[in-house]
User: What shape does this take?
Amino acid sequence: MLNILVSIKQVPDTTNIRINPETGTLIREGVPSIINPYDVVALSLACYLKNQFGGSITVITMGPPQARLALKEAMEFGADRIILLTDRKFAGADTLATSYTLAETIKYLERENPFHLYLFGKQAIDGDTAQVGPGVAARLKVPVITYVTKIENIDLKEKIIILHRKTEKGVEIIKAKLPVLITCEKDLAKSPFVPLSEILKAVKSEPEIFAADGPVKFEREKLGLKGSPTQVKKVFTPELKKDTLIYDLSTTSIDEVVMKIIHILEEKKII
Amino acid sequence: MKEVWVFIEQEELKIHPVSFELLGIAQKLAKDLSGKVSAVLVGHNVKPLVEEIFAYGAEKIYVVDHKVLSYYRHIPYVYALTYLAKKYKPEIFLIGATTLGRDLAGGVATLLETGLTADVTELSIDPETKNLLMTRPAYGGNIMATIVCPNHRPQMATVRPRVFPIPEREEGKIGEVIEEKMELTEEMAGVERIGFLPKEKTVNLEYADIIVAGGKGIGGKEGFEILKELAHLLNGEVGASRFAVESGWISYEHQVGQTGKTVRPKVYFAFGISGAIQHRAGMQNSDFIIAVNIDPEAPIFKIADLGIIGDWKEVATALIRALKNRRGS
Assistant: This one.
């Protein structure tokens, strides 16, 4: 039996983001929220492993109250327990405070029944930091294996996992002892088929709510904005200005344009 | 004296160029702090590398040489760096935002309980507070954010390859080497590499001199065949926008931008790319940008050196023809 923890994040769909041109801030209204796509891979992997080995899936997320919708959706992947960390004291957390909050919660959840696998997406598409997974692993004192593309084998008796991870030069095949924390690449698992009965169950489910004052005992000064060493000093849209030489093909001939390009390539000793 | 640290990323005794790029910017930061540039070199039998590291501007090198560090593994590397940083207390610690560097930095910053800013594209020292100003694209590259870490040290950042130029190499420079002995064991590593499948063909986008890139306007896989031919004629590589990659027209290795690669070729061709921040963040440091787009309002024209308003295909095919004629004659 595999005891699996999945950590997910609700994010704005960044492909739909708009910026207020006057203030340079995000327009959040009307931007749909989704489960971070790499976390969907982690949920899919959990679902697949549960079907293969049996066991249970616990899903946690930290976020505003509406992040409960992400957890309800996680139920469709066969989650047994869903937990929402929500409190104003958690707000404004950078990756250090986030990894603290998640790691303390995980330690609390596994007091009696330790997890074998901690699954995270490789990064969240709103921040793209890829720092929370390794941060949580450091706090749990377990090995982290990032950018995982394939689980080759899990031997539950020997507590051994063999997996593939992507590096810049190729694919590393890694053997590790459970428990490990894995961050998931896009191709690691496909979304499972969800029977209607599970969808209906998901609709009715509600997450357990964890706040700053319980049930996990947090050190207050390590939470949220207070616990975050990094601060955003300024947010801006970069100004663009460059002396651009413009040719319009409706007024300039293609031959002239090509000549110009060839000339530039010659000048730069490319041809 | 305040020290600006640079992690030297090496595999099989080959230093990743991003480490030299970081030594370059570290010199500038150290100057503004009246401090010095130190390199951190971790691995096994790595001492032959020190000359090269001094040549690129390090004034001091901390070395941890141990068999357990013979190839990159998270726990022993994190342990070694955390140990050094706790002992010598750098002001700033820079790590390349490579696959390896990003895996490493999160663990180190957590154990040092300090801030870490990911994927930084601009670095400077605030003249008043002397804090490090770290600027990075956020929200998928839709906006830029400047991050500070005022009350914790070291101030840590991962920096994208190719954001900063490689500094001039000065042969014969030497400095201080500090070797740290450390107790490391195979068991503490927790993982073992039991095989490696090298990539069949690597796309060397980051260090290519010529990039011929295509976006939404290309319209499909067929269009990229034309760009491949042009890239081939120029000995370049093919790049792509996120849209083109997500549409399945070309593989992820070709993606330029915030979620892809940062590049700085001598010439960057942007065919049918509108130029959202997320793309620009990856290519705006190119020496010369040639943009072709049907839409005269496309933001790409604001950062291009040469802008051509018109059909990308007409320009690409005419250029291919001209290059072939040139070869023939």
Chain A touches chain B through 82 residues (CB under 8 Å).
